[in-house]
Amino acid sequence: MTCQLMDCIGTPLPNFSQNLGFVLIGLFSIGALASSTFASIILINVVKLDYFYSHQTSIGAIILVTAGCLFMFVSLLGYCGLKKMTIWMIKAYATLLFLIITLQLAGSICSFAFKEYFSTVVLAKMNAAAKNYFVHGVDNGDLRATVAWDEMQINYHCCGTSSYLDWSTLRPEMKGYPDSCKCKVNEKDCGDDGFYHEGCYTILRSFLTTMVNAAACFSLITAVIQFIWLNFFMNEAQGTEYIRIND
């Protein structure tokens, strides 16, 4: 039995498959939004600390944000395709969803690689910049390195790389700690001596690792479930008489 394409538009899938599709599209949207949010937080922090990073480190986060934004539009296409059972919409949704899954996997891999970069390159850059911190009376300071360190220590309530004691070895000419390490004794994260004690590398590694893991895991889990559901749905649709076109 055949029918004209326009006559078939609006014919519903079995309730279970159609309702499952609506629920999963909603869940995928939440997963994509969560992944994009965590990736955006990573980007914001990388921009704040651009002195210690290269632009390549943000590739994974950019891919995940892009994939999340694309999915918000693609999910609308998928919803309309399921609601009206328009064959071209469903095929377009399937194609674009496969592209998004690829982006999510690529972004997750790049994000995990970022953790390794942070553990080696960023730590080395922090130590190198600390050795060029400007000290009054010493001519070999670097203003950019000084500003970068001051902003980081103030914004993240930290001092030094691994701890505030690093300054005594990284910049012994200072004979103390930078003013940006100072804090009020009753302030959160402030030591009894009026200085932040925890190192900036330690804080940032913990914070960014958590964000990277969250963004990558949300993206990976969403991508895997999307792929499984995409195969199930296309097989279901092709095996029924609910979507029909002329022979």
Detailed description of the structure:
By secondary structure, the protein is mainly α. 67% of the residues lie in helices and 0% in strands. The chain contains 7 helices and no strands. The longest helix is centred in the middle third of the chain and has 45 residues, at 87-131. The termini are close together.
Q: What's the average pLDDT?
A: 76
Beta strand %: under 5%
**Helix and strand composition category:** mainly alpha
The helix fraction, in percent, is: 55-70%
Features:
7 helices; elongated; disordered C terminus
Concise overview:
With 247 residues, this protein is an all-alpha fold. The protein contains seven helices and no strands.
Write the layout of secondary structure elements.
Elements: H1 5-8, H2 15-48, H3 59-84, H4 87-131, H5 143-156, H6 167-170, H7 200-238
Helix pairs in contact: 2-3, 2-7, 3-4, 4-7
